[in-house]
Amino acid sequence: MDDRTRAEEHLRVIRSLMERVTVYRAISAPTALVGALSSLAVAGWMLSRTGFIGSAERELPMTSRDFITPWVLPLLLTAAANTFFIWQEAARDQRPFLSPGLRLALRSLLPAMLVAAAVTFVAWRNPSDLDGPLIVALSWVSFYGVALLATLNFAPRSLSVLGWSFVVTAVLWLLLLSAPTLPVIPVLHGATGANLIMGLTFGVYHLIYAVAAWSSRASPKPPTAE
User: Fold this and answer.
1) pLDDT for position 70
2) I need a labelling partner for 145 at 20 to 30 A (CA). Which of 12, 194, 208, 210 fits?
3) 109 phi and psi angles, rounded to 5 deg
4) Is the separation of the CB atoms in 87 and 96 below 8 Å?
5) Distance from C-alpha of 130 to C-alpha of 146, rounded to nearest angstrom
6) Do 81 and 31 form a contact (C-beta atoms < 8 A)?
7) Residue 14 falls within a domain, yes or no?
8) How large is the angle between the packed helices 64-92 and 21-50, nearest 10 degrees?
């Protein structure tokens, strides 16, 4: 396949994806809800372990492995839900599951996801690092946002907004951690900060996105003049 043919095929796939924006928004809403509810549940449990919720007497030191292990559950649940909804939509439209559009989306997501996976692997190999949870959390949040932004040429605009929300939150969190002119905010640091930012982004942001996406589907379309 020469460059011109490849470019034409690429444009055709992008055009097809853009035409199906409404369908993909409908798929992303329940997926986001699954991710939000599971993330909020894990964040609440983990924050109780750090003493941020409940009695501080229960506070326990948290290593990288202690942080990563519970947070794998929302990842698996969200990935499984997204796979199911995509398969269901493909079966309904009698299209192949691994369509050209899905392959393009996966290629767009892959670079950011690979770096996040590498950071996670290094943190897992160094379980005694007590700074690991915050490093992993900020990496997950920022690279997830970057991954969403990598799809902005063909994804719903709402996903671009969600991606920027993750990136901006990670950047502001980093700046607040290191700003010499600001007082130290303890809850932004350590395991407490790691689980707070995970609950805020993967929990609250996804919940807002799911509600907004469903609201846009339920909104009646304005009448068109004939």
Assistant:
1) 95
2) 12
3) -80, -25
4) no
5) 26
6) yes
7) no
8) 160
Dist. CA 213–CA 215, nearest whole Å: 5
Residue 221 resides in a domain: no
Report the run of H or E that residue 23 belongs to, with start and end.
helix 21-50
Residue 222 lies in a domain: no
Q: What is the spatial distance between Cα 39 and Cα 172, in angstroms, rounded to a whole number?
A: 21
Residue with tokens 């549940």, as numbered in its chain: 41
Q: Give the number of C-alpha atoms closer than 13 A to the C-alpha of residue 220, restricted to the C-beta side.
A: 3
Which residues, including other chains, have CB under 8 Å from residue 59's CB and lie 6 or more apart? 49, 50, 51
Q: Which domain does 193 fall in, by range?
A: 19-216
CA atoms within 13 A on the CB side of 59: 10
Residue 11 has pLDDT above 60, yes or no: no
DSSP code per residue over 124-168? HH-TT-TTHHHHHHHHHHHHHHHHHHTTTTTS-HHHHHHHHHHHH
Q: Within a domain: residue 43?
A: yes
Q: How many domains does the chain have?
A: 1
**Confidence band (pLDDT; 50, 70, 90) for 222?**
very low
